[in-house]
Write a structure and sequence with these properties.
Elements: E1 10-15, E2 20-23, E3 26-28, H1 35-46, E4 50-55, E5 67-70, H2 74-85, E6 90-93, E7 100-102, E8 122-124, H3 128-135, E9 140-147, H4 151-161, E10 166-171, E11 183-184, E12 186-190, E13 195-197, E14 201-202, H5 203-220
Parallel strand pairs: 1-4, 1-6, 4-5, 6-9, 9-10
Antiparallel strand pairs: 2-3, 7-8, 10-12, 11-14, 12-13
The chain binds cytidine-5'-monophosphate.
Cytidine-5'-monophosphate binds near residues 126, 144 and 145.
Length: about 220
Amino acid sequence: LTHHALNGKHFIVTAGGTKEAIDPVRYITNYSSGKMGYSLAQALVENGATVTLISTVDDLKLPFGVKYIAVSSAEEMRNAVELAFDQSDGLIMAAAVADYRPENVAQQKIKKQTHDPMTMTLIQNPDIVAMMGAKKAKQIVVAFAAETQDLLKNAKAKLLKKNADMLIANDVTAVDAGFGVDTNRVTILQKDGDSISLPVMSKIEVARQIVEHMIINMTKE
Ligand code: C5P
């Protein structure tokens, strides 16, 4: 591998948990820190690529040279990814996209009800990576799977369902992996069925491994 294997290539990376509005002062989200996405942006830049980072979090150090697009909800993230996708060489969906959002966003702050429980109807968000997987041409599409059970079985099914080229699976119940922490332990699945389980390492080291496997994958085709 040459150091600048990705010179002239442009990648989209998404990061962070999406925020799904309930009313002007409330939203639904998840524990994603955005660290994995930022690390991936850095690893891509290290290999000479240009990167557009589409993120819900902006409290991390932006790697030098990365173009930053701030988004909040899954729908905003979908719009931003769609706009950039055709001109890109690949997409890494490291963001934790909410599967559901409130059906209606209240215009005013919702008042406490006199009787409980109260209910809220949720509708499904678009599956961004599956949409891009369905329409990809030259692009390499990388999805993530955070699982709490049957990691590899669910991850393989997801790789196929989303028509991804690679899927990065992590067991978020492991204390040294997943949300919020600085380390991760992942298995990289390839669409041809190959899988590589990596030991616990820092998120930047995991990101460098993922990018190396992307480079191998891209030179295979
Ligand atoms: O289906 P699941 O949410 O477990 O899949 C995780 C992968 O799919 C991640 O790469 C995530 O960024 C992506 N995803 C998405 N749009 C959604 C839900 C998940 O792109 N609505």
